Structures are given as structure tokens and as C-alpha cells.
Amino acid sequence: MNTQKDNTEEKILAAATDIFMVKGMEGARMQEIADKASINKALLHYYFRSKDKLFDAILTKMLNLAFPQIGKVFFSDLPFLERVEQVIDIYITLLLKHPQLPAFLIKEMNREGSLLFKFIEKQYFAIQPILKEIQNAMDRGEVIQMKPEHLVVNVLGMCVFPFAARPMIKNVVLNGQDDLLNEFLKQRRSEVKEFIIRAIQPQ
Amino acid sequence: MNTQKDNTEEKILAAATDIFMVKGMEGARMQEIADKASINKALLHYYFRSKDKLFDAILTKMLNLAFPQIGKVFFSDLPFLERVEQVIDIYITLLLKHPQLPAFLIKEMNREGSLLFKFIEKQYFAIQPILKEIQNAMDRGEVIQMKPEHLVVNVLGMCVFPFAARPMIKNVVLNGQDDLLNEFLKQRRSEVKEFIIRAIQPQ
DNA sequence: GTCTATATTAGGATAGAC
DNA sequence: GTCTATCCTAATATAGAC
Fold first, then answer.
1. pTM score, two decimals?
2. Would you give the distance in Å from CA A133 to the centre of its chain?
3. Which positions in chain B touch A55 (Cβ < 8 Å)?
């Protein structure tokens, strides 16, 4: 049963997500969020007490969206190169749905006092098995030898960077046209896959 | 001859650079900049009239540092693959000197009303010859065939991303240790080069 | 050119009526 | 639960003495 409370809370969360994702914690204004949710500032505070708490709610939501993705598909018994392709696929698909996510997270992880650090520190233990598994694949000769950490960062960089730097890509590389940008970002799925495979397949 | 004016102006610029690079336009405080420059707020305004104008001065300075780099070395008569290696070398060297630059620019290019856009739009004409030259190298068979725009973004992503996402790399991939992070970033020079070369060299 | 003191505004937060 | 009105602090900016 949907009370009015639930309904308003959802409106607030939706509005806050939109605003915070684009402007970040420091750029966002409570007034703007209230306007977008078609309520007033006082009601924002009634539901979330403070800007910090509201922001934390949004940040947590987006983090749970972004981070757990890798692990899911990675530990199957498919050949390693296919698993890499799947990871790239999943990530680009996620980013096409949330293009502002990379810039948002980069902004946030470089902001002092961000709650993001609490979250980030825990992830160390989550990624160790992945690095280990990459090393195993290398030892089996499924992939060329290199430092697993650098492979991870290379894949992440190629997937994430064009989204974080969309405004530059759009205006510098393409000709300022939104539809060209969208097309370009969609192409990343296959482009990154092919590029990575060429770089890491044996011989 | 150095008047007191020059001296103070330099102190302000140095302090403002430090603060703005780390905190961005919205996170920085005039008081903090004044403190760092060992002067008071009023003097900041005496020299630069407003926070906006001061920020613009810093932004312009950093942009002129970051953007014109590529072109310089790119149009020599060296083999294409060697030129790519040189570009990577120059960029990673620049980033090791200014590790906060990527996050700063990503923050800024995603901020509405940023003066960065005026600058960014002009760069379209600067990069066209580079894309053309890449295409030529592909047609000559010096490199594998792909969309030049994606090659540029791949190189840029691998160079820039680990700097933009330093806090995450440090805590998630490495073990929260600053010296490990530094070592890792230095390794990027050779790692990126080798990775790119494997991905784009013919056959 | 540099300071202290003050004005001004913006923005987060609360009180209190309904 | 929702609103209007108001408070309070932080932050940019200016006035005016030295």
C-alpha cells in the first residue's frame, strides 16, 4: 500500500538523484531539488534532515549500482577472453544508461570528507580474488603476461573515460553534435572489446 | 625588476592553483586561498576582483599546459608507432607532475557555465589534422585499421583515467598505500605503451 | 598595496501553523 | 505530511583607514 509518504519520498529521491548526479554534492542546491520534486525545502529536511544525509542516500544507491557488477559474470567457466568481453559489455551497457556516473564518482572520490572512502576501502577485499583469477589465466597461457592491476585499469579506463569526458569528446573529437556523441559511445562496446582482445591475446 | 605587486600576485596565483586544482571552483574558498598565500581576503579581491576571475586565470593557465602537448611531437617523420609512444610518454610525464589535473578538468568540463567550454570548442579544429594523420598511417599500413577517434580516446583513457581515479586505485586496487600508488602511476608509462602497441601494430 | 571592519547574499536548516 | 515564514551561518565582496 502506497502512503503519501512513500510517494513523496520517491519523488525526492528521483529529483535528488538527477540533480546530484549532474552537479555533485557541492554544486547541488536544496532549493533546486525541492523545485524538481515539486515540493518545498522544508519538506526535504523533514524527510532527510540534512543535505548530507540526502546525498549519502543517493551516493549509496549509485555505488551499489556501479561496483558489484564486475564480480557477477567474472567467475564462470567460460574462456577468459570471453569473460573479459562480458565484463566490458556489462559495464558499457550500465554507463549508457547512466552516462553521468563516471564524472559523478570521480568528482566525489576527489572530495575531501566524502563518505565514498568508507565504501571504497571495503572494496579492496572484493577485488583481490579478481586479480588472482586474472593471474591464473595468465599462468594458464590464456592471456599474455602483464600486471593484472594494469589490465584492470586499462579496461576500466577505456570504458569509463569517454563517459567522464563526454563534454570534451563531444566538442573536441566530434563536432559538438549530441547524436554523434551517442553513436560514438555506443560504438565503444565493440571497439573496446576488439582493442583489448588484440592487446592481450597470446602470440 | 620585481615590484611588491608582482610578488604578491605570484603568491596568490600559486596558492589559488593549489586550492582550485584540488577542490575545484565550487569546493574552493577564498579565505583558504588567502590563508595559503599569507594575505587576507580583501587583497585577493584587490588583485582579481572576484572568485570567478581568479578561477578563470588558473583554469586558462592549466589548459595551456594540458592541451597543446599532443600536437608538438606528433608531426615528425618518425614511424607512426614511435610517435604514439612519444605522445604517451609526454602525457604521463605531464600527469606525474600534475596528478590532480585530470580530476580537475573532468570536474570543470561537467560544470554548467564553465568557461572551459569556450576553450574546448576551439580545439575541434586543432585535433582534425591529428585524426587525419592517424588515418593516413592506417592507410599506409603502419597501424591496424580502426576509427581514429576511438584510438585517440583509448590512449587518452588509459593515460588519464588512473590519475582521475587515484583515490579509488589507491584503496581498491592497491592497499591504500601512497608509495604503491606512486609506483603504479610511474609504471603506466611503459605499461600503456606496450599495451597500445600490441593492440594496434599490424598482423 | 595592505589591512580591519562591515555589508550583502546565498543557502542550509528550523519553528510553527494548518 | 506539507506549507510559509524565518533563522543562522558561511562565503563573496566592498568601504575606508593606514
1. 0.97
2. 23
3. none
